[in-house]
Amino acid sequence: MDYKKIIYKSFRVTEQLKDRGQLATYIPELARVDPSMFGVHMITMDGKHYGLGDHQQKFSIQSIAKVLSLTLAYHLLGEKIWKRLGVEPSGTKFDSLILLETFEGIPRNPFVNSGALVICDILISELDDAPAEFLNFVRELSGLSTLSYSDHIADSEKATGYRNIAMCNFIKSFGNIDNEPEEVLDFYFDLCSLELNCEQVAKTFGYLANGGCKINDGKRVITKSQAKRLNALMLTCGFYDESGEFAFKVGLPGKSGVGGGIVAVYPNNYSIAVWSPGLNKKGNSYIGMKFLEELTTHSELSIF
Ligand code: GLU
User: Fold this and answer.
1) For the segment 65-90, what is each residue's pLDDT rounded down to a tens digit?
2) Could you give the number of structural domains in the chain?
3) Strand residues in 178-281 grouped as ranges (E)
4) For ligand 1, atom 2: residue with the closest CA
């Protein structure tokens, strides 16, 4: 497969689109990003790299990091984690509180904010220093030994994080948060603040394209079955209330973030990251989605 040619073609078609969506403004730091940014980076199983546009520019990965915290919790505790949260698409916005009342504090899945907060709580209970140990875990996956949380983004989100603060307290009222909400929220804002570029994101998520093992050194991160399940969750729940649309148009497991990043994997073939900060109405990168649709259309390869 000539991925180089296909990526180039998909990139050229997409970058000409006039509409680029809107920046997320509810986190003040995200509103300051240059909306014209657009980068793509693919890493194949045989170690080939294809990068275009602003693929070396760091961006706030936001909810993409929820896959990594889930991975660590799943690795540490196995199937036990599913007692605390579900594996169903929510059909609601990522920060909605509605279903928490219906399901008595059990989040629908680990990628809506409520689910990610419960995962943070699990990691705090399980680890001596969850923020530090999670950071080390991401350093190991990305190969970035000096990676740190971005305080300016975490502080910016914390200052306006009223919904997440309400949500965490609400879940605690049902008994599904064990630690102090403030500690859980601080960790949550930290993990959402991570900044990586497209190449680093594609590398970090290589294990999901490679049956649970890192691409570069083959080191196992999670079991093959866990990788299958995480990919299934990304396919069904990775794009907020637009997960069906992403499966329909792109046909790959993936995860988006409100910073405009998307990671997607084609198991046994490649890991790809795309970033453009303008979002569509459902909160996913406007041209990032379009690019991936072009990519799987031209390559005629998807999981379906
Ligand atoms: N930190 C963001 C929030 O909690 C993450 C949202 C996202 O990327 O989906 O609102």
Assistant:
1) 999 999 999 999 999 999 999 999 99
2) 2
3) 195-196, 254-256, 261-266, 270-275
4) 62
Any atom of ligand 1 within 6 Å of the Cβ of 157:
yes
Residue 304 within any structural domain of the chain: no
Q: What pLDDT score does 95 carry?
A: 86
Ligand 1: does its nearest atom lie under 6 Å from the Cβ of 164? yes
Q: Are residues 71 and 158 in the same domain?
A: yes
* 184 shares its domain with 219: no
CA atoms of 70 and 48, how far apart (whole Å): 27
Q: What is the pLDDT of residues 168-202, one digit of tens each?
A: 999 999 999 999 999 999 999 999 999 999 999 99
Among 258, 256, 264, 260, residue whose Cα is nearest residue 231: 264
Backbone φ and ψ for 195, nearest 5 degrees, come out as: -120, 125
261 lines ligand 1 (CB under 6 A): no
**Are 188 and 222 found together in one domain?**
no
- In this prediction the pTM is 0.97
234 part of a folded domain: yes
Tell how far the Cα of 176 is from the centroid of ligand 1, in angstroms: 20
8 A C-beta contact, residue 298 and residue 6: yes
C-alpha distances in angstroms, 227 versus 47, 118, 234?
20, 20, 10
Residue type for 112, please?
Answer: V
Q: Are 288 and 262 in contact (CB under 8 A)?
A: yes
Where the chain has pLDDT below 70, the residues are none
